[in-house]
Amino acid sequence: MSISSADAPAALARRLLHYVRPRQLQLVVRMAELGAMQKAAADLGMSQPSATEALNRVEALLDLTLFDRHARGVRLTPEGALLLPALKRALAAIDLLAGDAARIAGGASGLVRIAGIAAASTAVAAPALPALCAAQPALWIDYREIEAADIAALLHERAADLVLCRASVQVPDGHRFTPLRPDRIGLYCGSGHPLARLRRPTLERCARETWLLPPEGSPPHAAFAALCERLGSSPAVARVSTRTMALSVALVCELGLLYVGLGSHMDRFVASGRLHRLPIDVPGAPAPIGCLHPQPPASEAAATVLAHLVRWGGGEGQAAGAGAL
Known about the structure:
The chain contains 12 helices and 11 strands. By secondary structure, the chain is an alpha/beta fold.
């Protein structure tokens, strides 16, 4: 069943669409996860003969051997291992189709998938999206938080309509980055800290306190190193490190620590009265936060969300950014 023509991918796609069944793809994925056909078949409610026939059909359609059999089960061949991510994406696409169909049947007028880094979740999504949801109740918005390292794969797989991230991201062809909110690094303490009561605390006074180290490799960590260089020495630091913002804030408040952080992360805690931003000039200028999107947007619904974010960024977003400076 070898396919050798120049139209091989299209021909194989037609063959798969005509003959393959999602349950057969599920079997392959579960066999890879469980390492045994019998376990995978039982998990999917299939008999052993049906599972064997299903695997044979998939391998014949692909003209590839996906598994090597051994005494204790099966293991993926190199070819099977290369195809496994695509098989998982195919099944995920079916789940996505089912979810979208159910939401549309339930009255959704549009579907928009938004992915955002942690800073964008707190600095843009949290303050900007509730008003949109109130104004567009029939619009279905799916938001998930991601790492910056995930952005390229998301765009390649078209798994997000809009990506909230920093301007430093690499913008692929056919996409545009729209800035929404500036950011800045500041020095923070708990609202009950003695330094919070001083009108003009100096960096030298702050250096006598214990600090929480920002995550290594982050802009605040570089800013902390620059402050140490300005002081000519390093202040005492707590013997704990974390990238979890909730824990960082708890440590700062409960242990009376100082912390160099991003306004996009810390402003909500200042606004709630839990933290205080000290009037100390901190070096470093992180890239603005904004929206990475196809140009034109992927759908009318995505264009609606983008327009809302742009309006927010030109008003409340810029005001919030200015307040963080």
